[in-house]
Amino acid sequence: MSDQQDRIYATAHQQVTRFSFDDTVVRVFPDMIRRSVPGYPTIIDMIGVLAARYAQPDTCLYDLGCSLGAATTAMATLTADQGNRLIAVDNSAAMIRQAGTLIAETGQSERVSLLEGDVASMDFEPCSMAVLNFTLQFIAPDKRDALIQRLADATLPGGILVLSEKIRFADDAENALQTELHHAFKRNNGYSDLEISQKRTALENVLIPETLADHEARLRQAGYREIHVWFRCFNFISLLAVR
Ligand SMILES: C[S@@+](CC[C@H](N)C(=O)[O-])C[C@H]1O[C@@H](n2cnc3c(N)ncnc32)[C@H](O)[C@@H]1O
Ligand SMILES: O=C(O)C(=O)C[C@]1(C(=O)O)C=C[C@@H](O)C=C1
C-alpha cells in the first residue's frame, strides 16, 4: 500500500523526530513527494525523455535512491527493446519492498535489478545513464565528492547523470524568498502551516542542501564535459551532466 494521503505531520508531535524513509513514509510517499516537490511529475516524465535520448543500447542504467521506482519505470518504459538493464538502489528496506511490488505490476521486473544498499559505498558497473533524483541531498556532504567521482568514472563517453536537488542560495534574501515560495506551493497543495513547519524540523540536518554553484563545481571536477540546468522551480533544480 502506498497510495494514502500524507498526514504524517498534520497533528502536533510532542517531539518531531528525524525524518526517515520508513514504512509510515512509504505508505504516503507518492502523495508526499507530488505535493512537496514542485514539478515532480514533470521531472519523472522528462527522465524518461532523457533516457530515450541518451541511454545507449545494451548498457546499464542506474536509479540511485530509487524510492518506489518512479524514475526506473519512466526509464524502462522509454528504452523498451534496447537491451538496457536497470539497476535501482535504495538503502530503505521499506522502500525496496514496496518498489518490488510496484515494478512487478508494470511487467518490467525482468529488466530491473532492485538492490537494498548504500549508494555512497557501492561500486558501479559501466553505465550510460545514472539518476540521482532528490537523493544526493540525503547523503553526508563529506561523501558526495567521492560518490560523484565514482559515478563519473563509471559513465561511458556520451553518457549522462541526471541530478535533481533541493538547493540553497548563497544570498540570504534570495534563499528566504525561494523557501517562502516553496512553502506557498505546499500550502496550495493542502499542507497546513503546522505540517510545513514540523516537516521542516524533521528534515533539519537530514536533507542538507547545497548551492547550484557547489553542484556544478563538483560535477565539473569529476569530469562531466557539459552541465545544463534543464529544470528549475523555486529551490528545486534538475541538472543534466554529460560525460
Ligand atoms: C526523495 S527520495 C527519492 C525519490 C525518488 N528518486 C523518486 O524519483 O521518486 C530519497 C530516497 O533516497 C534514499 N536514500 C537516502 N540515502 C541513501 C543512500 N545513502 N543510499 C541509497 N539510498 C538512499 C531514501 O531511502 C529515499 O528513498
Ligand atoms: O517536503 C519538503 O519540504 C521537501 O524538502 C521535499 C522532499 C525532498 O526534496 O526530497 C523531502 C522529503 C520527502 O522525501 C519528499 C520531498
Automatic annotation (TrEMBL):
Binding-site list for S-adenosyl-L-methionine: 40, 65-67, 90-91, 118-119, 133, 200
Entry's Gene Ontology molecular function annotations: methyltransferase activity
EC number, UniProt record: 2.1.3.-
Catalytic activity of the protein: prephenate + S-adenosyl-L-methionine = carboxy-S-adenosyl-L-methionine + 3-phenylpyruvate + H2O
Keywords per UniProt: Methyltransferase, S-adenosyl-L-methionine, Transferase
Domain Methyltransferase: 63-159
CDD domains per record: AdoMet_MTases (cd02440)
Enzyme class: transferase
GO terms classed as biological process: methylation
InterPro entries reported in the protein's UniProt record: CmoA, Methyltransf_25, SAM-dependent_MTases_sf
The protein's assembly and partners: Homodimer.
Function: Catalyzes the conversion of S-adenosyl-L-methionine (SAM) to carboxy-S-adenosyl-L-methionine (Cx-SAM).
Listed NCBIfam families: carboxy-S-adenosyl-L-methionine synthase CmoA (TIGR00740)
Family note: Belongs to the class I-like SAM-binding methyltransferase superfamily. Cx-SAM synthase family.
Name of protein: Carboxy-S-adenosyl-L-methionine synthase
Native source species: Alcanivorax jadensis T9
Gene that this polypeptide is encoded by: cmoA
